[in-house]
Amino acid sequence: MTLKHKIQTCNLTSIKFFDFCRNLFTSGKISILAFLLLIFFSMNLLQAKPSFSDSPCAEIHDPHECFKEAERFFWGIGRNEDKEAAISLYMAASEMGSTFAKARLGSFYLLGWGVEKNFATSVKYFENALEKQEDFRTSSWEPVILSALGLIYQQGKNEYKNEKKSFEYFLRAAKLRYGPAQIKVAAAYVKGIGTQPDGLEAYAWLRAAFDGGYTSEAIRKAIQEIENQMNGEVRALAENLAKSRVKIIELFQSRTSGDNQ
Questions:
Q1: What are the tens digits of pLDDT across the range 235-258?
Q2: 156 and 190 fall within a common domain
Q3: In this structure, are 124 and 182 located in the same domain?
Q4: How deeply is 104 buried, as exposed, middle or buried, from its count of CB atoms within 10 A (0-12, 13-18, 19+)?
Q5: Same domain, 182 and 155
Q6: CA atoms of 218 and 223, how far apart (whole Å)
Q7: Which domain holds residue 56?
Q8: Where on the phi/psi map is residue 192: left (φ > 0), alpha (ψ -120 to 50), or beta?
Q9: Within its chain, how far is the Cα of 190 from the centroid?
């Protein structure tokens, strides 16, 4: 199944939104990871069916309700689309402590959607959101935010070009079973970007991504090519390492889930 077909089969109810994403991607203005991040941050809303309130914006004092009202204005669901009003509401919700508003603002500033693109502001909102990680544990947002930060420090300039930081963020996301991050970690180990080159670690994380459902032909071939270069002893070591990565992921998720109880 092609990437385009996978996206088309998603429950995206806004044709205008899909066309916007597709045009961004095909024009080369964003990377495939940024494209997937944009899809992810939007699907949660498009698949949701909120109950709309007639409360004036100024009278909303609950951060969660303020966040939901911002969503309605931003996407034009039950409200006239108004990006400026939405951004103000997201900021108000963020100031009241809405972790999801912080995450949404981080994604908007990363992609320059509704606001001027600004890595510094994106990082601020994403890192603030991660301070309350327990809010994300049942929503799958945490590994996506970590990957977004990895992307910022991978593609940024000056103080936002930091290969070591980028690798650390991708690694944290990889431990949360996020396939795109696992592939990024494998690539970093192959090229020695942000970490020491390590073929066995690269193989282990590719296997983790493949076994977790990222079964593209390119990944399968990459794994096969690495395996073909291994003798029996090295391959046994690599497979044991791959299994240990799965255990590390399970332990990491068990620990973070325990912290949330």
A1: 666 676 666 665 555 554 554 444
A2: no
A3: no
A4: buried
A5: no
A6: 9
A7: 1-161
A8: left
A9: 22
